[in-house]
Design a protein that fits this description.
Blueprint: E1 22-25, E2 32-35, H1 45-58, E3 60-63, H2 70-78, E4 91-92, E5 95-103, E6 130-137, E7 145-149, H3 150-155, H4 159-166, E8 169-172, H5 180-184, H6 188-198, E9 202-205, E10 207-209, E11 216-218, E12 225-228, H7 233-247, E13 253-256, E14 263-267, E15 271-275, E16 283-290
Parallel strand pairs: 2-3
Antiparallel strand pairs: 1-2, 3-14, 4-5, 5-16, 6-14, 6-16, 7-13, 7-15, 8-9, 8-12, 10-11
Bound molecules: fe (ii) ion.
């Protein structure tokens, strides 16, 4: 099967052909469904090389109808790098590399870590390279996930605004996700303090260079970015509000509808994502997270 697809990561680049996989882009900005791969089988070298190239070009790869076991999900993830053990989210029994994202509905409390634009684990010094999320029990409607192309977020700023953000760094703090109500519950302040101690705030440049593509990107998270270093609070608040609005610009997005056994694999270095909380039925997703700065 041979096909080409214009690279979302680099719209100006000439698309190279694919021979083992076929890509079906789902938006103008980023994201493509991959056809021609059975993730129950080990990847041959050529298919793996094409998936890596597609991943860097499209930023998010999607797969449909991949009825894989936890072992197969772990094996697929390990192709790309070492896997992460999450500090907070529960994992699957016997598979500590697979975290279980379970919700009774979109309103459920754990969604506070999901329905705002964020890069996973941006509140750590070395946020992971990629995530591979599989839909185990999707709701019959709703619960889509959206991604934003952070290269385009940087590139669509004016040169003068790029110059302003270029020299700035921002703090990322996971305790920013705590709601006031949680703090007021019994044990709330202790849980907050323990989280703060376990994951103290970290500083990341607002503009980063992707370690593999060399392209600049805008790195900001609605969930965890609290303030910009060196600015007065009013300046920081105003600039962050603008940047949050900017990455919420629809032209920079793709949106994926989950079916059972759908898989999304995203580059966590140059995309942020948003889990839309509009579902009213239970949902279960399994994720493996790939560590590192560059793909294996
Ligand atoms: Fe996330």
């Amino acid at each position: 099967m041979a096909a080409t697809a214009a690279p979302a990561g680099n719209p100006a680049g000439a698309p190279a052909p694919y021979h083992r996989i076929r890509l079906q882009p789902i938006s103008g900005s980023l994201g493509a469904i991959v056809h021609g791969v059975d993730l129950r089988q080990p990847l041959d070298a050529e298919t793996y090389a094409e998936l890596k190239r597609a991943f860097l070009e499209q930023l998010v790869l999607f797969f449909r109808d991949q009825d894989i076991t936890p072992d197969q999900q772990v094996a697929f993830g390990r192709n790309f790098g070492e896997l992460h053990i999450h500090p907070f989210i529960p994992s699957l029994k016997d598979h500590k590399e697979i975290i279980v994202l379970k919700a009774k509905s979109g309103e459920e409390e754990n969604l506070r870590l999901a329905n705002a634009w964020h890069e996973d684990l941006s509140y750590t010094n070395d946020p992971p390279l990629a995530a591979i999320l599989r839909s185990v029990n999707p709701p019959s409607r709703g619960g889509d996930t959206m991604w934003v192309n952070l290269y385009r977020a940087y590139e669509t700023l004016s040169p003068k605004m790029q110059a302003i953000v270029e020299g700035l760094s921002a703090w990322h703090d996971v305790t920013h996700t705590y709601r006031r109500q949680e703090l007021q519950m019994p044990g709330g302040p202790e849980r907050y303090a323990a989280t703060f101690k376990k994951a103290p705030p970290v500083l990341h440049p607002l503009v980063q260079v992707h370690p593999e593509t060399g392209r600049k990107l805008l790195y900001v998270s609605e969930l965890t970015t609290t303030h910009i270093e060196g600015l007065k609070a009013r300046e920081s608040d105003a600039l962050l509000q603008f940047l949050f609005r900017h990455i919420d610009w629809k032209e920079l997005h793709c949106r994926f509808y989950w079916e059972k056994n759908s898989i999304a694999m995203w580059d966590n270095r140059c995309t942020a994502h948003y889990a839309v909380g509009d579902y009213t039925e239970p949902r279960e997703m399994h994720r493996v997270t790939v560590l590192g700065k560059v793909l294996n």
